[in-house]
Write a structure and sequence with these properties.
The protein is α/β, with parallel strands linked by helices. Helices cover about 50% and strands about 15% of the residues. The chain has 10 helices and 6 strands; from the N terminus they run βααβααβαβαβαβααα. The chain has a 6-stranded parallel β-sheet with strand order 3-2-1-4-5-6, with helices on both faces. β4, α6 and β5 form a beta-alpha-beta unit. It starts with 11 loop residues before the first strand and ends in a 12-residue tail after the last helix.
């Protein structure tokens, strides 16, 4: 498998790490509301395309609080793996969940970039996984901390992506009618592109579709 191969519903999985109240409070690198929207783009795209998804928290009951409900409620049957380690890869249950997906291409996003994202990234790269970091769904104590962590990840071989890029890469063609409306719902709810979608529907009618009549 190559990094030139695009992410698809059949070759990839995703891990969302530590989207918890205590971790959000430390985020100063990004507008927190933007991060909240971007992780929902990731999670909703993963659900729409039936991507194997791993959710994990750190010190949920003793310090950091629960995984953000907007994401957790999308996966009601998932066991959210709680850890004590900053590095998810040190947790046996996380490693088992990753292995159980059967995928080698892994999208990772989490709080904070300089610890809970970069640490498992480095270990998973060593284990032969291809790592794609959704940088705009991550956050850190400062922009400097986020940027240095991303640079380190890229130098180690990880691939930076964005949340909407991930969703678009899964969709590929707007004429894929089985996921078209779900994608439009994600964009309307969480992306500035939702403004254009609403305008087009208003101007051209509800039949307006980027996929032509097939996706209408």
């Amino acid at each position: 498998m190559s990094k030139l191969d695009m992410l698809t519903p059949d070759n990839s999985a995703i891990a969302l790490i530590d989207y918890q109240p205590a971790m959000f409070q430390g985020v100063q690198s990004h507008d927190r509301l933007v991060t909240v929207n971007n992780v929902q783009i990731l999670a909703k795209a993963a659900k729409l395309f039936k991507i194997p998804t791993v959710l994990t928290t750190v010190a949920r009951d003793s310090f950091s609080g629960p995984f953000m409900p907007e994401v957790a409620e999308l996966f009601p049957k998932h066991d959210i793996i709680d850890r004590t380690s900053m590095n998810s890869w040190l947790d046996a249950n996380f490693r088992k969940a990753v292995a159980a997906t059967g995928r080698k291409k892994f999208v990772i996003a989490g709080l904070w970039t300089e610890a809970c994202v970069i640490f498992p990234t480095l270990d998973m790269l060593k284990e032969g996984y291809e790592i794609y970091i959704a940088a705009d769904a991550c956050g850190d104590l400062s922009l400097e901390a986020h940027n240095r962590a991303m640079e380190r990840a890229i130098q180690a071989g990880a691939v930076p992506i964005t949340s909407s890029q991930y969703a678009y890469e899964l969709q590929q063609d707007w004429a894929r009618s089985e996921t078209y409306e779900g994608m439009m719902d994600i964009q309307r709810a969480h992306s500035p592109y939702g403004i254009q979608i609403r305008f087009s529907k208003w101007a051209l009618g509800e039949h307006a579709s980027e996929g032509g009549t097939k996706a209408g």
